[in-house]
Amino acid sequence: MKSFVLRASLMAASLIAAWGLVCLERTALGDDKSSPLYAGTAKVDITPEADTAVDMLGRRLSPRDRLFARVLVLKNDDVSLAIVSVDLIVFASPKVISDAKAKWGIRHVILSATHTHAGTVPRGLIINPPMSSDWTRSNRAPADSIDWPGLSADPWYAATEAKIVAAIGAATQNLFAARIVAGKGPFESAYMAHNRRLVRPGAPVVALWENPDRRPTKPVDPTVGVIRVEDLTGKPRALAVQYACHPVTTMGSGVVSRDFPGAMVDYVEQELGPDCLAMYLQGAQGDLDPYDLHNLRGENRFNIVRRAGISLGQGALRVAADLKVRPGAGAPDASKATLQVKESLLTIPNRTGNRTTEVGLLTIVIDRTLALVALPGEPFIQHQLDLSAKSPVANTFILGLAYCGQGSPFVVYIPTAQAVKEGGYGATECSFLAADAGAKLVDEALAQIRDLQARRKTTRVAPR
Amino acid sequence: MRIFPFVVALPPLLHALLFFNVTISGAADEPVRAADLESTLVRMRELGRERKWQELIAEFKIVDFAAWPTESAPQAAEALHLRGQAYSQLKQGRPAEVDLKAALKLAPRRDIAWLNLAENYMNNLGDDAQALDAYRRLLALTGRKNGWLPITATLAAARILTDQVRTDEALQELQHYDESDGVAPIWRIRLLRASGHVYAAQGKEQESLAKFREALDLESRQ
């Protein structure tokens, strides 16, 4: 009885909140020029019970780190958007996206996995041949070999989905008038990242899983992207850090770990205070690794992960410190911001056979200074470099491993056509889309960014 | 069908029975001739040189080198060392430890045996504390000279200390060579990279990157 009352109350609260958002959107849509930008944040612990965590190969993981999902909700007249950063190797839940829409009226959700290789995985993703083959290397779309909605059969996964939906709700119910400012800056680190594909003329590509001597490699992107969300007093309330590198240092260590993204968010939150939510947004990390991997032993393995996270956090805070809110922002009569989103669904041929794969892409443009492009796979870094070079928006960031509810939940690696010619891991292994898929996705993102720019509408930011 | 292993094992067994003081009843009382000792060592050295570790163990596994006469202690130490090294190469950490310790009991200044013992602790037995102790015993013997042996031990000791995040101690180990002239470039490069890793473990990124760059620069000039 008690639980029924509780459930009924929660349902009523959800409906009220969702209706409130709908009303807010409807009202705002009628008066674009005066509606403010709102933001809300939430964080939820998704750590599995002790002794139940397993890695991709089904091996037990001991507890070391807590795992979290971190939510940033942004909302203006036209758009409501939740960006969720999840401490998992991949997280593509259609249920979370549909429930967030149904319960909280959130139109767009980005489920962005940090891609830590030492988080747990649901039973349905475990690779254990011959019982369950390596779905990442099958040359088939993971959408065909994995029952993604069926992953909820794992009780931990189902609970995680419910927790994330609730966290989106919590963020939605605690919106504050906000400003967003974004930028990117140089990031040179003693810990990452190098390109793990050593291409040699006339010879097979060598996988450089580690680079302990810090030899120069290319291509790499030695920058870090930062999105700072602040309230109208100027207090930072969220800091999202976009960077591209595989969090693999704690892979195989036998423990649950958030790897360097976890250390980064801990550092940023320690520096900016408990009211600021830090998030890691994985970039186009398909061919990028940290310098140290198998060469690390003992406690130093975890020490290096922590140092790498702090290093990234310090780099992000350096960039954030130089970010300037546009002149006039916050003044009642001058500040304006836009939040625009477009969804695309591309039909891309598979590299072999006659089948095609639907690939969803979400493009967001915020206030002419920030563009986010969410892709449900692991793009090679050259795609980020190409997109940055061609985009009319100064800070254009790819979010890899980012599922938005449309198309295939996960398309594994997205190499360049040149890399497919050269071969190697991520290019001809664990990659099944046509060789030009990455270029097509970048072209689509550019077209969407330009389109959004062209029909930009402005909305007022609430006064300071 | 089970005769085959016996046939294969027969020649080394005969070898052991005919030439050595083995721990088999009756053979223990036979005096060991100097020529036999020398032929044993010649054979063991040859197998060791050719990295035929399995064969070395098969031929000499049951020989009780420690029972060789006192005046043959240097030869016994070498034989134990060679067999311990073979066990270590075959990842058989415990018998390797027994033989290498026995070799060092007979010849405590046998520096390469200290190195092999340390490496056995590190690579086969996962005992970093004993490995570090063995490397330091070796360094006490050799001093911080420019040869490969003390530098190898220094690098290994620094590595263990870095793994344990005892980074100040790791730097102290490496700093013995900071001002040392005449270190061969190949070793200087390794020392620089080891320092780079220690600084990375300390979070001193600029110092770390500087060491790695210096190593790359030196390497490019070779």
Q: How many separate domains of chain A?
A: 2
User: What is the global morphology of chain B?
Assistant: elongated
Element order, helices and strands of chain A? HEEEHEHHEEEEEEHEEHEEEEEHEEEHHE
**Main sheet record of chain A:** 9 strands, mixed
Oligomer: heterodimer
Radius of gyration of chain B: 21 Å
Label the overall shape of chain A: globular
Cα separation of the termini of chain A = 46 Å
What low-confidence regions of chain A span 5 or more consecutive residues with pLDDT below 50?
1-6, 15-34, 330-335, 457-464
What's the total count of β strands of chain A?
A: 21
Strand content of chain A: 25-35%
Number of helices of chain B: 11
Total beta-strand segments of chain B: 0
Individual helix count of chain A:
9
Strand order of the largest sheet of chain A: 11-10-9-5-1-2-3-4-19
Helix content of chain B: over 70%
What percent of the residues of chain A sit in helical stretches (DSSP H or I)? 25-40%
Topology:
The complex is a heterodimer of chains A (464) and B (222).
Chain A: H1 2-29, E1 38-45, E2 68-75, E3 80-86, H2 94-104, E4 108-113, H3 142-145, H4 155-172, E5 176-186, E6 192-195, E7 197-198, E8 206-207, E9 223-231, E10 236-243, H5 259-272, E11 277-282, E12 288-290, H6 300-322, E13 336-337, E14 339-349, E15 356-366, E16 370-374, E17 378-379, H7 381-390, E18 395-399, E19 402-403, E20 413-414, H8 417-422, H9 437-454, E21 459-460
Parallel strand pairs in A: 3-4, 10-11, 16-18, 17-20
Antiparallel strand pairs in A: 1-2, 1-5, 2-3, 4-19, 5-9, 6-12, 7-8, 9-10, 13-21, 14-15, 15-16
Helix pairs in contact in A: 1-2, 2-4, 5-6, 7-9
Chain B: H1 3-19, H2 34-49, H3 53-60, H4 73-89, H5 93-106, H6 111-124, H7 128-142, H8 148-163, H9 167-175, H10 185-202, H11 205-220
Helix pairs in contact in B: 2-4, 3-4, 4-5, 4-6, 5-6, 6-7, 7-8, 8-9, 8-10, 9-10, 10-11
